[in-house]
Design brief:
Strand content: under 5%
Helix content: over 70%
Oligomer: single chain
Radius of gyration: 28 Å
Protein name: Phosphate transport system permease protein
Number of domains: 2
Order of helices and strands: EEHHHHHHHHHHHH
CATH class of the largest domain: Mainly Alpha
Number of helices: 12
Membrane topology: Multi-pass membrane protein
Distance between the termini: 53 Å
Main location: membrane
Organism: Aromatoleum toluolicum
Keywords: Cell inner membrane, Cell membrane, Membrane, Phosphate transport, Transmembrane, Transmembrane helix, Transport
Largest sheet: 2 strands, antiparallel
Strand order of the largest sheet: 1-2
Structural class: mainly alpha
CATH topology of the largest domain: MetI-like fold
CATH superfamily of the largest domain: MetI-like
Length: 319
């Protein structure tokens, strides 16, 4: 309906007191589409849950069969891991020692370098420099780990042998150093995101008190972003514990019970790769041992994730 006001201008009068445009009106088709999208998103979430449940079920069920033959006490305390011998022994300690040693070497490399890079990119780098460096870090994180493994074997270990001629051609030191290089992008990227999330007002307040950029970075920004930085460290640890191909190529496949990084060793994930290649017949007790080893690795990762969750809740700052 249309009527003219005193000025001669035409004004539109609504057809009814509660009329709503067709665009805003609730339509059955639009409601159906929204519900369909919600169901698709819910299904995507359930896929991850069901995948996790399936992995746990396979590991636990096969591990139960394994521990029906090998005692849990022997598995946890024996210092020999020889599933391919005539008289096999299944002590997880040699594999656990190799996993923890290579992870420790990797973290000694990754945490200081990754934190330094994150502080520089967040507090000191110009935007053009940041835009140039970030893609290279992401590229470093996208290199296949098998390439890192051969880089450790053909470049890093020979360089270490120049400093230590008695060093073995396969050792945990070279593998751990290259593992640390591979982990740096994860630590630096997450730590930088955490520091850039700190409000600029905190930095400005520090500058107003006469602090330098370096003092502000270490005494204001770093403590304020500690929760996110520690989460980056936890992710780096989990990444190091689960690393496979670098240690399989460069650390050797010898399950020695040692924490000396100058010696060769075998990690849990490297042993799983070895058995998966067909060294043991399917269904044998030796083949089932990879599920017990995998369950041990999953429990280690779960413990790290729980620690990370507690740390985030303990040091989280709300702005």
């Amino acid at each position: 309906m249309q009527e003219t006001n005193s000025g001669g201008a035409a004004a539109l009068v609504p057809h009814g007191p509660l009329s709503v445009s067709d665009r805003l009106a609730k339509k059955a088709l639009r409601h159906f589409k929204e519900r369909l999208i919600e169901l698709l998103l819910l299904g995507a979430a359930f896929v991850s849950v069901l995948t996790t449940v399936g992995i746990i079920w396979v590991l636990v069920s096969e591990s139960v069969n394994f521990f029906g033959t090998v005692s849990i006490w022997s598995f946890l305390t024996d210092t020999m891991w020889t599933p391919l011998f005539a008289e096999p022994r299944y002590g997880i300690l040699p594999l656990l020692a190799g996993t923890l040693t290579t992870s420790a070497v990797a973290l000694i490399v990754a945490i200081p370098l990754g934190t330094t890079i994150a502080i520089y990119l967040s507090e000191f780098a110009r935007p053009t420099v940041r835009e140039l460096v970030k893609p290279f870090l992401e590229l470093l994180g996208g290199i296949p780990t098998i390439v890192y493994g051969y880089f450790a074997l053909m470049v890093v270990i020979p360089m270490l042998q120049l400093l230590m001629p008695e060093l073995s051609g396969f050792n945990m030191l070279g593998a751990g150093i290259v593992m640390g290089i591979a982990i740096i992008p994860y630590v630096s990227s997450l730590a930088e995101d955490a520091m850039r999330a700190v409000p600029m007002s905190m930095r400005e307040g520090s500058y107003a008190m006469g602090a330098t950029r370096l003092q502000t970075a270490f005494r204001v920004v770093f403590p304020a972003a500690l929760s996110g930085i520690l989460s980056a460290y936890i992710l780096g640890i989990s990444r190091a514990v689960g690393e496979t191909m670098i240690v399989a190529v460069a650390a050797g496949m010898q399950p020695n019970f040692t924490v000396n990084p100058l010696e060769p060793a075998q990690t849990i994930s490297a042993y799983i790769v070895q058995v998966a290649l067909g060294d043991l017949p399917h269904g044998s007790i030796g083949y089932q041992s990879i599920f017990a080893a995998g369950l041990s690795l999953m429990l280690m990762t779960l413990a790290l994730n729980l620690v990370g969750h507690v740390v985030r809740r303990r040091y989280r700052e709300a702005y």
